[in-house]
DNA sequence: TGTACATCAGTGAACGCGCGTTCACTGATGTAC
DNA sequence: TGTACATCAGTGAACGCGCGTTCACTGATGTAC
């Protein structure tokens, strides 16, 4: 692989910070939380370690930024998947398809990038998911608003619905990311959970 | 705190291995995965580090044993909680109470020992949950068998039911362990998920 | 029951490693005149 | 437009640390006669 070796000076007043966060993300993708380090990131972007201290107070702060970056990436992935759903004449079907697309994207992300998924959810410091994973939370709630508006989900479920949905899909995604499901069973497992959630939200 | 400082020789042909696993568990409880180490465990049980290599090939192997120990602990906690449920004249109510006790125990464990919970679920190496977390899986399935036997859960749901239940409760537990839910909302969140799961299993 | 001996679970010293972080510095950048 | 200068983002060397693991060893344990 060809690596473009930039001189450190290239970063003068440049994009070192965002380059560092991206490099951190890539290290995590390859080797998990363990692989993230000040020195490793510095090496990766062709800079000496102390240079990073101009932009991050500590390793912990770098980690927080990397984690945040991954959450944004995940949210955008979910949005893009939802936006690819084909419109249907049946508007209820369309809403369900979009809801499923969101959930599937969440699980796919965890499956394809288990290490990113893991790091995305550390260090909440007691922020609720809504604040912490803003984009994904918002996308889910748009779906649920539409369900209620179309009379597909009873109003009295509106408050609990996102909690059940999030827990179920998050649990599924976590188990898949941890390889806690034998490969042959994954498909069935996913269908069981997604169908179950959908039923629970729509019924009665 | 009074620490009983044993001489290393006390362990000759003794219980060093189980003492090490227990010490490992306690280190994890206090400081998470990071806190687990050959040297730290050795110090904790009053032995030099190389002594541990008589019992574990590597740090990784120690971790695997600690993780397994925690899973057993968790399963036993669930069982004991279930067994404390008061018998009711209404046998269906009794079964539901036991099912809730299991789920609540799972979540309580994650809430009270977030670091243990985290370590319990690493390194699956593609074993399915059933094999990996044998005891807990078995307990859940006993409940579901009873539901079906009493006609509370339709037979055709028997296969998917544990998957949905496990995902939902595992997701809830994970979020709580990660402090991803604001403290004030935890109670409502838990009720929403547990009620939702119960409904999903029993309905229709 | 007492002694000689084999076993092997421990010790203590040492290894090389990579880490986060600090410090005084240098030299590129952007600005004021 | 050209020069002098302040700023500050980088460098390079060094720090102390704790880690997993190895090695030759020692001395307690349990066994055979």
Describe how the helices and strands are arranged.
Two copies of one chain form a homodimer.
Chain A: H1 16-31, H2 38-45, H3 59-83, H4 91-112, H5 114-120, H6 129-132, H7 134-149, H8 161-177, H9 183-202
The structure holds a DNA duplex (33 and 33 nucleotides).
Can you give me a brief rundown of this structure?
Chain A is mostly helical.
Structure write-up:
Two copies of one chain form a homodimer. Chain A has two domains: 11-56, Orthogonal Bundle (Arc Repressor Mutant, subunit A), CATH 1.10.10.60; 68-201, Tetracycline Repressor, domain 2 (Orthogonal Bundle), CATH 1.10.357. The first copy, chain A, has 204 residues and is mostly helical. Helices cover 66% and strands 0% of the residues of chain A. The longest helix of chain A has 25 residues, at 59-83. In chain A, helix 4 (91-112) packs antiparallel against helix 7 and helix 8 (161-177) runs antiparallel to helix 9 (183-202). The first copy, chain A, has helices at 16-31, 38-45, 59-83, 91-112, 114-120, 129-132, 134-149, 161-177, 183-202. Chain A is elongated, with a radius of gyration of 20 Å. Chain A has nine helices and no strands. The structure holds a DNA duplex (33 and 33 nucleotides).
Query: Separation of termini of chain A?
Result: 57 Å
Question: Any idea of the CATH topology of the largest domain in chain A?
Answer: Tetracycline Repressor, domain 2
Strand fraction of chain A:
under 5%
Outline the low-pLDDT stretches of chain A. Answer: 1-9
What is the tally of beta strands of chain A? 0
Query: Radius of gyration of chain A from the CA trace?
Result: 20 Å
Binned, the helix content of chain A reads 55-70%
Structural class of chain A: mainly alpha
Biggest beta sheet attributes of chain A: none
Give the SSE string of chain A: HHHHHHHHH
Instruction: Indicate the CATH architecture of the largest domain in chain A.
Output: Orthogonal Bundle
């Amino acid at each position: 692989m060809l690596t473009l070796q930039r001189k450190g000076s290239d970063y003068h007043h440049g994009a070192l910070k965002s380059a560092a966060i991206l490099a951190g993300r890539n290290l995590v993708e390859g080797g998990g939380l363990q692989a993230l380090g000040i020195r490793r990131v510095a090496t990766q972007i062709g800079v000496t370690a102390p240079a990073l201290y101009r932009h991050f107070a500590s390793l912990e702060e770098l980690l927080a930024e990397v984690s945040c970056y991954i959450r944004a990436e995940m949210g955008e992935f979910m949005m893009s998947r939802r936006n690819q759903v084909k419109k249907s004449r049946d508007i209820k079907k369309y809403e369900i398809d979009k809801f499923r697309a969101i959930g599937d994207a969440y699980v796919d992300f965890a499956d394809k990038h288990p290490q990113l998924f893991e790091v995305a959810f550390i260090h909440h410091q007691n922020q609720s998911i809504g604040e912490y994973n803003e984009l994904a939370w918002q996308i889910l709630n748009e779906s649920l608003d539409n369900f209620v508006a179309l009379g597909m989900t009873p109003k009295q479920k509106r408050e609990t619905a996102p909690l059940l949905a999030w827990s179920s899909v998050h649990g599924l995604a976590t188990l898949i990311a941890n390889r806690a499901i034998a490969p042959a069973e994954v498909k069935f497992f996913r269908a069981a959970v997604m169908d179950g959630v959908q039923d629970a939200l729509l019924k009665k």
